[in-house]
Here is the input.
Amino acid sequence: MTDEQILAICQSNWIYRGVDDTSMREMREELRAHLEEAAAAGRSATDVVGEDVAAFAAAWARERRPLRQRIGYLAGVAGACLGTALLLAHLTRWTTSLPVTPERIAFYVLFAAVFVAWELRRGGGGHLRSTVIGVVALVPVAVAAHWLNGDITLFHLPLWGSAALLLAGAFPAVTDARRRRESAAAGDRSAG
Amino acid sequence: MTKAPPGTGDQRRSQLLRGVLDLCLLALIEERPRYGYELVEALAASGLELVSEGSIYPLLARMERAALIDAYRAPSAAGGAPRKYYRLTGAGQAELAAGRHAWQGFAPAVSRTLEAGTEGERTS
Here is the structure.
């Protein structure tokens, strides 16, 4: 396997796992320099990255952005999505009080679970794809919940409740995005 | 410099090294700022060969995230593109001191235990 092939495998793995551009550039250059020096000393690329290049890339990516950071961020994004969906429901029904039914709860809870699980597996970044997968997978769940429970209304959600959910979800997501931007900018400055 | 572990002895060495690799890296970085390849070379020069050289990078990333080390880019003596050099922080210095203290207590205890076993074999 050539150095370029190894770098390409690593890069696609890092993109897949949501490593930001600045970090990825830095990791790529660091690895490229190491591979070149190792080759000049007569060692193979396998000596550097091991037999499993994807596992090597994944281990490095996980240390750059660990699981608990990603869970906090994704829980925030899922909460913000949920809040937005509920606000849209208020708007389309033109009401300040939204009836909450079992199928609606089942749909949103499972949607959030699938969204977070899929994003964690994937590594973050492609929220649209995760959203589509969540919706497609969970429409049958909502239909089944509706079929089992009928039109029972458990409680009414006020408009401020939906807004609070949106803000509670947006806060950690925005904070995390800002921290990543600042960290990337600091990386650019030190690179310069 | 790098060897695949053909037998149990090398696997054992690899396992032992994995447990103290962070301390070894901190100690080497304490001597002077180094970049990744230099760290691998310095480890090999001390007789500590890694099964996969690149395994230092996730560890360096973890230590950088924990603020034990920080990094800057500078031209290398070998020439070529600037390298990412790692240097020790105050927290890294404290971690290294604690690690050395723990190792100085741990290593003789293991040696005593292993040697006691050897003497037991001799007497029986």
